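To whoever picks this up:

The parser on our side crashed when reading a file containing two proteins. I've narrowed it down to the boundary between the first structure block and the second sequence. Both blocks are reproduced below exactly, byte for byte. First block:
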Amino acid sequence: MSRHKAKRSILICLSVFCLIACCGVTLAADRETAFDILNAWTSVRWGEDNIAWLVHYPEELVEPWVSSEAERQRMRPEQVEEFRKSFSDELRIGSAAAFLLSVHAYGVSPINLSPMGDNMVLIDSSGRRVRPIVFERKLDDPIYGLVQGFIFFPPQEDKNFSIAIKGLVPNGETNFTFSGTTRGENAISIATAPDTITSPSLENTSQREVVVRIPTRRVETPDIPSLPILPTQPEPTAIDISDFGDFSDNAEVFPPTEPIVPPTQPSLLEEPPEESRDDAPNLAPRQVLEIYLRAWIDGDSERMYSMLSTESQGRISRELFAREVTSGGFRRGLRSGYRVNWVGDSARVTVAKKVLFVRTLETKQINFVMEDGSARVSW
């Protein structure tokens, strides 16, 4: 090899190395920023035979988290936009203040936070107590082991707020403050005695940094499903059956599926011309469901709309239908694998959606009607 070629090879190698290094630095910086935001908006409290932690997801978390995940998973530009939209929709960014409550009950008796709509309030800087606008119903059930659920409050421009929850301590409220506000100095702290945390005032509150260690005592508890905490790693390449709970009902399980970009061969997914629709094959509900979900994974709302029943198309426009099927994280959940339960000619499709480190289950029921000898989707 000539000296000139050797120098050129060295320069190319150095350029590639610098590019990789820069990408690594960007990923590390974005991830660190995201973790700093999460640390500032995490609060942990001990209760009576329980420990609870609350995480708020502010709008400023979106960009560093999406950027770091896009770089880590090497997403294509269209995948980045889809992930950003899904992430924002799941957390209702801009339309609500999102919180994830995790409660680990390790005593013999369960924890009862019901009625959750009354027992959890946001206390703003003026002392006004604001009730949640929506929350996951599992938080209203008796809590055994680890249970996690999302709670949404009206959006708050003033970030100087705290959260108060009844039921974690006897006859009192537990107050969660955050270092992301002026109310708390440490994100992880121990609150004062229960009788002193019934108002947003911090005049009698002392806080100190602690190391949180969950008790290891094991107790017999009923088989109540709870959401696992996920490690930070790429999306699974194989579906984890445990994500969907008990499979004694003989549900069908479908593995992860990537969108077809572009379609590599003709298939039943291709919508026939309008004038030849009468000649289309007569399909059973199971065949239609497979085609319908494949189109959903591919993001082809037009094809999905064409598979709706005549009555459904008369009730919902193409534009509104497209917004409904592309909002939220259901499509992304389908790509990671899904479960189908059939009850007659209705299918219950369940996906396991990941939001940050939490995996939640979402089920949509898809009904079918027969038109011209073929099944159509009733929306």
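<<boundary where parser fails>>
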Amino acid sequence: MQSYSHPFLPILDQNTRILFLGSFPSIASFEQSFYYAHPRNAFWPILEEIFDVHLETNEAKKAFCFEQGIGLWDVIGSCERSNSSDTNLKNCIPNDFEKLLKDYPNIQALGFTGKKSFDLFEKYFKELTIERVLLPSTSPAYAAMKWEEKKRRYEEFFEKSGLLKN
């Protein structure tokens, strides 16, 4: 087990309306200093298909998020782990969501990109009153749901949040 602190800042600004939350960055994300960086993670391909865009660089992905009112962060600020698996996270210390939601009052909903991030948030921030939506994990480790079904769930979330017009 090795101790890790979150390696990069959240992607959000005063126009952010929905905030996607993972548990903690994978080793691939650490290496690339960006969210959902594993080459087989479906997060970016799903967003590209839903919004009909092609996002080749991290800068393009960041600009897209700002343009669409999408934020990205993780529930955990530091922890111990020996690999990228969510089941491996130990001694977790959460990020400060009370402060974040005060500082960014336009955030209307949290979209959790997997059960572990949702469960961790509930453990530490159950009392916060903000809409929470558990979405399917986009990790390649979560193969129980087909890609098309994952995409459909994310698309519904965007439609419900008003960021995607049918």
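After patching the parser it read the second block fine. The chain has a mean pLDDT of 92. DSSP finds six helices and seven strands in the chain.
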